[in-house]
Write a structure and sequence with these properties.
α5 links the parallel β5 and β6. Helix content is about 35%, strand content about 20%. It folds into 2 domains: about 180 residues, Rossmann fold, CATH 3.40.50; about 60 residues, Helicase, Ruva Protein, domain 3. The longest helix has 11 residues. It is elongated. It has a 7-stranded mixed beta sheet, sandwiched between helices. Strands 1-8 form a two-stranded antiparallel ribbon. It is an alpha/beta fold. Bound molecules: S-adenosylmethionine (SAM).
Length: about 270
C-alpha cells in the first residue's frame, strides 16, 4: 500500500492567505448576491464571503466539520450551513432570489460530477469560481484543435464561458495534495438555443459518441454508434467536414450541425 494516505473526502484545506482572498475576489461584488459554497471545510473562504455576500449557503458533507462551522458563523444571520452531499442537493430549491453564484475549493475526487451537477442547474446560476486539479481545469478550458479538448471541454463550453484564472502549488494547502490546482471561472450562458439544439441530453450523448475513442476518427466513432458510413460521409460533406477528422478538432457549431443532420430526428441515443 502507498505510504501517502489520500485525505478523506478530498480534504486539502487552503492554508495560503493570499490565495483564499484571490478566490473570493474572483466572484466580484457580492453585496446583492446569493452565494453557494461547496465544501466550506474549516471556513477558509467562507470567512471572507460571510462579510461580503447578501446570503451565503454552505454545503458540507463532513458531519464533524458542521458544528465547528455553525459555531464560527453563529452571529452571521446571512450564513446558512447545510450538512449535505452537494451531488444530492437540489440547488434550484435553495435559490429564492434571482440567480446564485457558486464557489468552492472542490473535493477533487468528484470534480466532474460536481461540474455536471452545476451545469444541470445552470438556469439558476450566474457564475461559478471553482478550484480543481490543474490537469482537469486545463481540460475544461481547452479549445478545439488542442490535445486537451474532449468531452468535458465541449460539455462545459456548452453551458458557459470558461476563464482559467490562476494556479496554486501543493504547498498552498494542508495537507498538500500531490498535484497543482487551478481556479476556473465559469460564466453560465447555455448555448443550446443558439445552436438550435432541442434535446440537451441527446446532444451530450451524441458528443460522448463522437469522443468515445479519442484517437479514432469521427467516422469510426460514429460508425461504432450505429450510423452508416454512407450517412456519415454525406452529412460531413454537407458540413464541409472531413469524416477522417478527430472530434478534438471540431467546433461546437460543427457538432451541432452533425447532430441535427444525423441524430436529432431519430431515436438517438441508439440502444
Ligand atoms: N473550502 C475549504 C478550504 O478551501 O479549505 C475545504 C476544501 S476541501 C478541498 C473540500 C471540502 O469539500 C471538504 O471540506 C470536504 O469535507 C467537502 N466535501 C467532500 N465531499 C463533499 C460532498 N459530496 N458534498 C459537500 N462537501 C463535500
Amino acid at each position: 500500500m502507498s505510504s501517502k494516505r489520500k485525505p478523506k473526502l478530498g480534504q486539502n484545506f487552503l492554508s495560503d492567505d493570499a490565495a483564499r482572498h484571490r478566490i473570493a475576489d474572483a466572484l466580484g461584488d457580492l453585496s446583492q448576491r446569493t452565494v453557494i459554497e461547496i465544501g466550506p471545510g474549516h471556513g477558509a473562504i467562507t470567512t471572507i464571503l460571510a462579510e461580503r455576500a447578501k446570503k451565503l449557503i454552505c454545503i458540507e458533507l463532513d458531519r464533524s466539520l458542521v458544528p465547528e462551522l455553525r459555531f464560527k458563523f453563529r452571529n452571521h444571520a446571512t450564513v446558512e450551513i447545510i450538512e449535505a452531499d452537494i451531488l444530492e442537493t437540489d440547488l434550484s430549491a435553495l435559490i429564492s432570489d434571482g440567480k446564485a453564484d457558486v464557489i468552492g475549493n472542490l473535493p477533487y475526487y468528484i470534480t466532474s460530477d460536481i461540474l455536471l451537477h452545476l451545469f444541470a442547474a445552470s438556469a439558476h446560476l450566474r457564475t461559478a469560481v471553482v478550484m480543481m486539479q490543474r490537469e482537469v481545469a486545463d481540460r475544461v478550458a481547452a479549445q478545439p484543435g488542442t490535445r486537451d479538448f474532449g468531452l468535458l471541454s465541449a460539455t462545459a463550453q456548452l453551458y458557459g464561458t470558461i476563464d482559467n484564472l490562476f494556479t496554486l502549488p501543493p504547498l498552498a494547502f494542508s495537507p498538500p495534495p500531490e498535484v497543482h490546482s487551478s481556479v476556473l471561472r465559469i460564466t453560465f450562458a447555455p448555448r443550446f438555443a443558439e445552436l438550435n439544439i432541442k434535446d440537451e441530453q441527446a446532444f451530450i450523448d451524441f458528443l460522448r459518441v463522437c469522443f468515445a475513442q479519442k484517437r479514432k476518427t469521427l467516422l469510426n466513432n460514429l460508425r461504432n454508434a450505429g450510423f452508416s458510413a454512407k450517412q456519415i460521409t454525406e452529412v460531413c460533406e454537407n458540413a464541409a467536414i472531413s469524416p477522417q477528422i478527430r472530434a478534438e478538432s471540431l467546433q461546437l457549431e460543427s457538432f451541432a450541425f452533425l447532430f441535427r443532420a444525423l441524430a436529432a430526428d431519430t431515436n438517438f441515443p441508439k440502444k
